[in-house]
Amino acid sequence: MKTSTRISLVAAVALALGACASMQSQRDGMSFFVTSTGSGKGADLGGLDGADRHCQSLARATASRDRNWRAYLSTSASGGYPAVNARDRIGRGPWQNAKGVVVASNVDQLHGTNNLTKETALTEKGEMVNGRTEKPNMHDMLTGSMPDGRAITASGDSTCSNWTTSGAGAAMLGHHDRQGLRDDDASKSWNSSHLSRPTKEGAPGCSQVALQGTGGNGLFYCFAAN
């Protein structure tokens, strides 16, 4: 009886170690995730550099393989600097989530028929993010981008002053769960659904409160560029 119990314990430990090794292997291969937390300051991410650092910090906390993490964010031309396209920041792909599922093989597929859904757009921890049918809804992702991943050229703010303000302004948002109020392309867009807006109570469009008011939490996408 003791021998049988000892064998069972050894087998259980072996299975547990195997599962842990498998999970770590998937994490090592992770090259895409949705941030589990935002900056806490609405759309003020500290610019592109601050957003990239946030991606890097979250990924490092999971003990995943060291990579050059980039936030999927576009910026507008300003102060003599040209616009930056989100699609040009994130490498060539392929990209897979924390569970090893490939969301896109290359940049063109990412901005075409990709595998990005609520079930695959996982955080760096491998967890799903609340969608439109859950409370609180957190499906709005900061992007500042057009559907093709390029910076928006129309007049007006769409990047909350290039991700440096939680005050007045607006940010283009995408729906990670591909759901919205209507059955149209914009509502189903992962990266270019609608702009943030001030609350009825007067909170500015780039504030944390305003982002939460339309179904977000200041979250964004991170991709490994290498």
Description:
This protein has 226 residues and is of the alpha+beta class. It has one domain: Mannose-Binding Protein A, Chain A, CATH 3.10.100.10. The protein is 25% helix and 13% strand. The chain has helices at 2-29, 47-61, 107-110, 160-163, 208-213; strands at 32-34, 69-71, 95-96, 102-104, 140-142, 172-175, 194-195, 216-224. The strands form 2 sheets. Strands 1, 2, 5, 6, 7 and 8 form a 6-stranded mixed β-sheet that branches. A two-stranded antiparallel ribbon has the order 3-4. The chain is globular. Mean pLDDT is 91; it is low at 10-25.
List the helices and strands and how they pair.
Layout: H1 2-29, E1 32-34, H2 47-61, E2 69-71, E3 95-96, E4 102-104, H3 107-110, E5 140-142, H4 160-163, E6 172-175, E7 194-195, H5 208-213, E8 216-224
Parallel strand pairs: 5-8
Antiparallel strand pairs: 1-8, 2-8, 3-4, 5-6, 6-7
Outline of the structure:
By secondary structure, this protein is an alpha+beta fold. It is built from 5 helices and 8 strands; from the N terminus they run αβαβββαβαββαβ.
- Number of folding domains? 1
* Rounded average pLDDT: 91
Radius of gyration over all CA atoms, rounded: 19 Å
Summing up helix and strand content along with how strands pair, one would put the structural category as alpha+beta
Would you state the CATH class?
Answer: Alpha Beta
Please count the beta strands (DSSP E, at least 2 residues each): 8
**Secondary-structure element sequence?**
HEHEEEHEHEEHE
CATH arch. level architecture = Roll
Please tell me what the overall shape is. Answer: globular
Assess the beta-strand content as a share of residues: 5-15%
